[in-house]
């Protein structure tokens, strides 16, 4: 099998989603039911057609060891090598060939392809803010300087391919019928602006991981003006390539902030540091809008504690993804309200110690290593290998690196250590992470145009047909009354901080 070098991360993700999961059967299904992408000459002739198709192939290549490309005319055949190069930059071992009758056919452009298997054909297109899927016939991809419809369509198409491949192991995994899902219109009554250029002022993006790269993908393909400060201290690991849509295997070891690209009208400032270090350096300056794309409740609470004026937060969970919107002094929940720890929840250091199978008496050592980012000693790495049953030679590469890196790559990345029973290590699929980031980028530019404010949360479950879901929710402040947004000192500090802008 032509499995990707980061395949074990997909193993971790699939084990959270599929009934009766078996690793070997999972790999065979990906090979036997690889998706087919059908396209004609209208795709390379359109910038939005290329954008949609390339993101779709990008997402599929991070999961499937086999992709079937069917070009319908000479222009499409001339474009096909570009898609092959893209897929191989993600998985050098990926294979191409004739589709099987088990493959889902994803048709982009004006063609239909062979008439057989119409029951396993999905037509894909995008118009402005809206991604369009149909079972009946080709759908258009409009030539507009707005990537959101194309991004939505590509992510939904990849999600349908996953549902089709594992339809026996997922509840409610039918294909979408005729749907048109707008990044602006997920919320009833919200209208998309007619503008194709957007001004975002000075915005901070905290986290340049999988969701953050969805944001950055949108900004690469959008006429956006302003300053974007990207904050992330980490380097790219091999397991990250499983769902980071801007990355290729040769990028391993590069700083994550490096994937943020400046362009005409958009100044990018890269900060290779933690959020806490960024805030210390910035002092008490105003933070007009912060985009939160981090992977822990603790990190989200830390962002809220710095009292930004507005926060947009994106997340993925095994069964849904979404965006939440927060101010601080209104009646709705602040970001911390949604992530206050439960009384019986374990601290991060305890979770990591248990994942490494270390005894309780190692808790303080783990806490110190995390707090100080101390390099791991050969003795500590040897104890982890002995406790977890991993091969010592495989863990040697973590000597001199940090404990956070060991946990992220070896445990969360699924590359070396098995996650203990009861540990909640959430690993989404690439199409889930990318769509969460795209939705947050759309929300930012919608707010920048003065579009009507939205409910607290918008969620979407792309492992089910999307056309019949309730997506909008209002969240009140935390019922305990213990959140900082219910503390008079914090509220007064917030009001003083932004008094001049009121």
Supply the key terms.
502 residues; alpha/beta; Rossmann fold; 3 domains; eight-stranded mixed beta sheet; seven-stranded mixed beta sheet; 16 helices
| CATH fold field value of the largest domain | Rossmann fold
Coarse morphology: globular
| Count of helix runs | 16
Main beta-sheet strand count, sense and barrel state: 8 strands, mixed
What is the averaged pLDDT score?
88
Low-confidence stretches: 419-425
Quote the beta fraction. 15-25%
Strand order of the largest sheet: 10-9-8-11-12-13-14-15
Number of domains: 3
CATH class of the largest domain: Alpha Beta
Q: Kindly report the name of the CATH homologous superfamily of the largest domain.
A: NAD(P)-binding Rossmann-like Domain
């Amino acid at each position: 099998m032509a499995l990707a070098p980061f395949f074990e991360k997909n193993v971790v993700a699939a084990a959270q989603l599929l009934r009766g999961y078996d690793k070997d059967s999972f790999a065979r299904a990906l090979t036997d039911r690889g998706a087919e992408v059908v396209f004609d000459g209208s795709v390379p002739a359109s910038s939005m057609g290329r954008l949609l198709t390339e993101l779709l192939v990008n997402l599929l290549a991070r999961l499937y060891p086999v992709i079937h490309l069917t070009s319908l005319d000479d222009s499409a055949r001339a474009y096909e090598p570009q898609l092959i190069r893209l897929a191989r930059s993600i998985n050098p071992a990926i294979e191409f060939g004739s589709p099987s009758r088990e493959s889902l056919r994803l048709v982009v452009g004006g063609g239909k392809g062979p008439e057989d298997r119409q029951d396993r054909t999905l037509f894909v297109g995008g118009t402005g803010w809206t991604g369009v899927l149909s079972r009946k016939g080709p759908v258009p991809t409009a030539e507009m300087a707005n990537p959101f419809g194309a991004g939505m369509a590509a992510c939904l198409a990849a999600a349908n391919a996953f549902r089709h491949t594992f339809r026996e192991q997922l509840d409610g995994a039918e294909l979408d019928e005729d749907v048109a899902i707008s990044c602006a219109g997920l919320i009833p009554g919200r209208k998309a602006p007619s503008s194709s250029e957007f001004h975002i002022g000075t915005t901070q993006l905290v986290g340049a991981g999988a969701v953050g790269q969805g944001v950055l993908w949108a900004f690469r393909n959008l006429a956006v003006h302003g300053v974007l400060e990207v904050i992330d201290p980490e380097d790219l690991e091999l397991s990250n390539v499983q769902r980071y849509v801007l990355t290729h295997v040769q990028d391993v070891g590069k700083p994550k902030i490096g994937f943020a690209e400046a362009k005409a009208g958009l100044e990018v400032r890269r900060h290779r540091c933690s959020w806490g270090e960024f805030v210390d350096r910035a002092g008490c300056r105003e933070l007009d809008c912060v985009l939160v794309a981090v992977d822990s409740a603790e990190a989200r609470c830390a962002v809220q504690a710095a009292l930004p004026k507005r926060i947009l937060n994106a997340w993925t969970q095994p069964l849904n993804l979404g965006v939440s919107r927060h101010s601080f002094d209104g009646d709705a929940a602040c970001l911390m309200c949604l992530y206050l720890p439960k009384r019986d929840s374990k601290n991060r250091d305890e979770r990591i110690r248990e994942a490494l199978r270390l005894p309780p008496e190692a808790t303080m050592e783990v806490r110190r290593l995390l707090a100080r980012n101390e390099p791991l000693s050969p003795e500590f790495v040897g104890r982890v290998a002995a406790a977890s049953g991993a091969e010592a030679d495989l863990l040697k590469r973590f000597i001199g690196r940090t404990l956070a890196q060991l946990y992220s790559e070896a445990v969360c990345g699924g590359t070396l250590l098995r996650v203990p029973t009861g540990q909640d290590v959430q690993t989404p699929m690439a199409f889930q992470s990318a769509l969460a980031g795209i939705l947050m980028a759309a929300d930012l530019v919608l707010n920048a145009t003065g579009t009507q404010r939205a409910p607290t949360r918008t969620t979407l479950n792309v492992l089910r047909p999307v056309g019949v879901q309730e997506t909008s929710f209002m969240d009140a402040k935390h019922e305990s009354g213990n959140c900082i947004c219910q503390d008079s000192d914090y509220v007064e500090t917030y009001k003083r901080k932004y008094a001049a802008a009121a």
